[in-house]
């Protein structure tokens, strides 16, 4: 990307993350590391050669790093500098929501994106807990938990969740977007464990008045 060559923090930031797809790659990695194939599948229309270029660019600026996965698999993850972009992405998501067309039939939906938005909106409830969200149709699994007054949302799975919420991706997206008082109120979704955790989280989000999409 050609530099703006301006003595301005905004221009400098755009020199680094202003290219098409770059911020969306960072968004994908907010919930944890992914392989090249997983990134490409989630992003959809991004050509593989352009994805490789963007990842190389982000590594150059120490926003993304390579990690060794199981076997010979290579994973991509945010560095500490990359993680510092999270509040910027969340602010963009809150602003962009005003222009979103929720009834669009063309716009793709993705459980990872929905849970990224959930991470933006969620508030601590002064209670340590472990919530697991699992999609039956894609085998994706995500963890939402509070520890020492801080909320975390990441990809992963655990056998010791306090509450397990399961369903197909589309139904789970509706749950985390709309935050009904009980997750099991959504058709096709089952909740096993202490559902008061979800109820308390949903109430905290409703009180905060945060918008529903990233």
TrEMBL record:
HTH hxlR-type domain mapped to chain residues: 8-104
Family matches, as Pfam families: HxlR
Domain of life: Bacteria
GO molecular function per UniProt: DNA binding
Keyword set, alphabetical order: DNA-binding, Transcription, Transcription regulation
Protein name in the entry: HxlR family transcriptional regulator
Organism: Planctomyces bekefii
Lineage of producing organism: Bacteria, Pseudomonadati, Planctomycetota, Planctomycetia, Planctomycetales
């Amino acid at each position: 990307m050609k530099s703006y060559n301006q003595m301005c923090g905004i221009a400098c930031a755009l020199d680094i993350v202003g290219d098409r797809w770059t911020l969306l790659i960072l968004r994908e990695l907010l919930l944890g590391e992914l392989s090249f194939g997983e990134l490409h599948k989630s992003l959809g229309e991004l050509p593989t050669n352009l994805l490789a270029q963007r990842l190389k660019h982000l590594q150059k600026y120490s926003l993304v790093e390579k990690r060794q996965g199981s076997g010979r698999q290579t994973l991509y993850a945010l560095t500490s500098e990359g993680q510092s972009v999270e509040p910027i992405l969340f602010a963009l998501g809150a602003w962009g929501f005003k222009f979103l067309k929720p009834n669009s039939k063309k716009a793709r939906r993705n459980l990872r994106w929905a849970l990224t938005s959930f991470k933006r909106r969620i508030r601590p409830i002064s209670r340590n807990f472990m919530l697991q969200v699992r999609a039956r149709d894609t085998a994706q699994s995500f963890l939402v938990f509070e520890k020492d007054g801080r909320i975390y949302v990441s990809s992963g799975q655990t056998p010791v969740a306090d509450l397990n919420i399961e369903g197909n991706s589309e139904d789970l997206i509706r749950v985390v977007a709309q935050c009904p008082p009980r997750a099991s109120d959504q058709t096709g979704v089952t909740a096993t464990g202490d559902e008061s955790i979800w109820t308390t989280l949903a109430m905290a989000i409703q009180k905060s008045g945060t918008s529903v999409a990233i």
